[in-house]
Amino acid sequence: MSHTSGQVSPDSPATKLRVVMAQVDCLVGDIPGNTQLVIESARTAHQQHQADVVVFPELCLTGYPPEDLLLRPSLDVRIDEALETLKQAQLPVAIVFGAPVRDKGLLYNAALVLESGEISQTYYKQFRPNYQVFDEKRYFAPGRDTCVFTLCGVPVGISVCEDIWNDGPVERAAEAGAKLIINLNASPFDTDKQESRKALLARKSSQNQVAIVYANLVGGQDELVFDGGSMVYDHSGVLAAEAPQFEEGLFCVDFIYDHHCQPVSQPPRSPLSLEESVYRALVLGVRDYTNKNGFKSVVLGLSGGIDSAVTLAVAVDALGADRVRAVMMPFRYTSSMSLEDAEAEARALGVQYDVFSIESMYDSFMATLAGPFAGTRPDTTEENLQARLRGVLLMSLSNKFGALVLTTGNKSEMAVGYSTLYGDMAGGFDVLKDVPKTLVFRLARYRNTVSEVIPVRVITRPPSAELAPDQKDEDSLPDYDTLDQILNLYVERDFSADAIVAEGFERADVERAVRLVDINEYKRRQAPIGVRITERGFGKDRRYPITNKWKIGK
């Protein structure tokens, strides 16, 4: 292994280079499986696309993020075995791929070049992200050296993910003569990410007069979804090629190298709408979490409301109707409309559908509690009991049939605590955990444009938990349009209560919402994980103490 840097002078006539971006879905920790994925993808790229080089995502041998697996004593042995397997595979094409590499006792996030059965180049990532969902400073030392080498006659520089978001690595590679930058990525999805990437790549390529290959990971890993969307920009900052988001595949781009390394432009892709991109992220997140963790099927409570309706549609689109079970668990406050709509949803999507009343279970519990509850008035205790009985039923079905329980709470509810511990929060994966309520409505309308599976009145009726007579969410909360704006400012942008009021919101609404967010941190710590689709979800992004006396206000 060697670090290469220095000036490279293009003196040869125009040459051609065919790059294949391998947008692959790796499984964290499965180093042998990921290694075979690299080998098979490289061979396919050679056979089907006559590739000169195949570019894989960041840390593709371990999957991303490997987190504390990087601290395992056997990591080095397993990576050495993987590298030897790659060398012995006699690949007919050069590959650029990511792996953790230890050098003089320090662990680095590395990009490696394999040519003719040997590691010809090694580059160590220089900028280690340590914000939002990233903790790379916990594991990796920073690289220092620039790597520029000649590949099929083209001077190529290497960088890894965060390196391109900072000044230095690309600039130094360009100064050393690179005309093409290969950037390996494991960049997770959020609703604004692809446009941010495009703006960055346009600026970096034009400022440094280099073409850039941006190869990104695809797939779900716990709460993160990696959306692919690999891209190529030319030296003038123009998008030349873009791979689809949320899809695995091998995507080929031709370059002609003379004075500049010019990619052959491909027809532009239509950008995904917000609703389609979020919906596809949810589908991919559910599919990979379920399959990678070995669940045969999923089960969820279907209430006749919009959250469970969207969750059901996502589950079916992710796994197929034969792997999804929906259960309606009515009580005396469940409306006939909810019963009718839940059945209509289940029939439209073709899933197994059961109706199990919780009436007798509730009466039995209340009879047992009659003594200690004597002399008290009904309150949220009795409401929460209904939710907890439903949670017991769903978890029992999960145990018996090996089904993952999908919970249906949205981000607005998670924020203000409008959910029941050991009730509707009982389960393994919350599909809508990072989706605000107003966006849930938009997703329902979007899904109905594909095929109408959610009754219109589910979308138009006032939201209700139906845990008490004539109950509506907005009886005790601001309307969701207002609430979601307040929550965005407080949760995702860290505005204080006073700063939110200064934006034009009623102080009473703001202080109530902020207080509810603060006092419900203990619930969120016990909630299932769910797909992250915003810049700041309830998970790795936002880490506030449960026990604290921070006062609302400034």
UniProtKB/TrEMBL annotation:
Its EC number is 6.3.5.1. Coiled coil: none annotated. InterPro entries: C-N_Hydrolase, C-N_Hydrolase_sf, Gln-dep_NAD_synthase, NAD/GMP_synthase, NAD_synthase, Rossmann-like_a/b/a_fold. L-glutamine binds at Y131, S187, K193. GO terms for biological process: NAD+ biosynthetic process. GO terms for cellular component: cytoplasm. Pfam families: CN_hydrolase, NAD_synthase. It comes from the Bacteria. Residues 17-257 form the CN hydrolase domain. CDD domains: GAT_Gln-NAD-synth, NAD_synthase. Deamido-NAD(+) binds at N384, E413, K523. GO terms for molecular function: ATP binding; glutaminase activity; NAD+ synthase (glutamine-hydrolyzing) activity; NAD+ synthase activity. ATP binds at G301, L302, S303, G304, G305, I306, D307, S308, T408. Keywords: ATP-binding, Ligase, NAD, Nucleotide-binding. The active site is at E58, K125, C161. Pathway: Cofactor biosynthesis; NAD(+) biosynthesis; NAD(+) from deamido-NAD(+) (L-Gln route): step 1/1. SUPFAM superfamilies: Adenine nucleotide alpha hydrolases-like (SSF52402), Carbon-nitrogen hydrolase (SSF56317). It catalyses: deamido-NAD(+) + L-glutamine + ATP + H2O = L-glutamate + AMP + diphosphate + NAD(+) + H(+). In the C-terminal section; belongs to the NAD synthetase family. Belongs to the NAD synthetase family. Catalyzes the ATP-dependent amidation of deamido-NAD to form NAD. Uses L-glutamine as a nitrogen source. This is Glutamine-dependent NAD(+) synthetase. It comes from Marinobacter mobilis. The lineage of its organism: Bacteria, Pseudomonadati, Pseudomonadota, Gammaproteobacteria, Pseudomonadales.
